[in-house]
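step: validate -> pass
step: tokenize input -> pass
step: predict -> running
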Amino acid sequence: MEQTMTRRQARENAFCAAFSATFQPDAPQEALDAQLEAGELQLDAFARKLLDDMMAHREEIDELIASHLKGWTLSRVPRASLAALRIALAEMLYGEEKKPGVAINEAVELVKKYGADNDYQFVNGLLGTVAREQGAAPEEC
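step: predict -> pass
step: emit ->
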């Protein structure tokens, strides 16, 4: 029987899986699969959907992130920020709920918890810009 968890916990677990996959950039799916097989993470249907969407659209998501970097390359983005951005963008662009404000807030909280001191500002700014470009109303962000 699948364990039910809060959306916040599901996002955090998906974030942790996405973060670990950044250490194997040439084989991220294999890294995720190994982690799941080892039972290191509990993922409910929502977390699995986030990861599936992130992996299915990884090139598009990374291109979108890279297009918003000013004077940086994707390889310079801290791993925690990159994982949070990927998960949030997967939810914002490919998720069923279309609540960009929630995805942005959760990504910011994850980066505050796991990232460097001011990384959350970068994540918030990039995701907010993408949300506005996608036509999300300001009150939704």
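step: describe -> The radius of gyration is 14 Å.
step: cleanup -> pass
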